């Protein structure tokens, strides 16, 4: 996902750093034996002289400004989506309260699946690259597979056969 024009770079898309600016080496100063004290500035008796020695300006640094996530739209979009996910889970819990014979396993499975889907989409919205989210998606897929496989094993397990009477 390319950043919008004028938007600050995301943490995954930083501009390459340039080599530091070269600073000229200081010139050699005369030794103590040839040093002369500076001549005093002519004083007109009205305070400091209007002539000041030239000041050196600091060289601009090539360090990027510190990254602030509050400056990006993806931060606000991710926070908004996470709030939406929380509302969805709360509505889901309210709907499941009306089911008379629901088990704790079914509640946990439904909420976990919703949570995994919301977390997956939040990772995509926040601007991470596919290489960065691949391990998280693998983990989320494993969790969903475990929850759905565990539920499917209970429902499809054959019932125990009735004991047969021995035949004479």
Q: Briefly, what is this?
A:
This protein has helices spanning 73-97, 104-125, 130-156. The chain is an all-alpha fold.
Can you describe this structure?
This protein has helices at about 75-95, 105-125, 130-155. It is mostly helical and about 170 residues long. Helix 1 (about 75-95) runs antiparallel to helix 2 and helix 2 packs antiparallel against helix 3. The protein is elongated, with a radius of gyration of 35 Å. The N and C termini lie far apart (about 75 Å).
The biggest beta sheet is recorded as: none
**Gap between N and C termini, in Å?**
77 Å
Q: Please tell me the overall pLDDT.
A: 74
* Shape estimate: elongated
Secondary-structure element sequence?
A: HHH
Topology:
Blueprint: H1 73-97, H2 104-125, H3 130-156
Primary descriptors:
mainly alpha; 3 helices; 168 residues; single chain
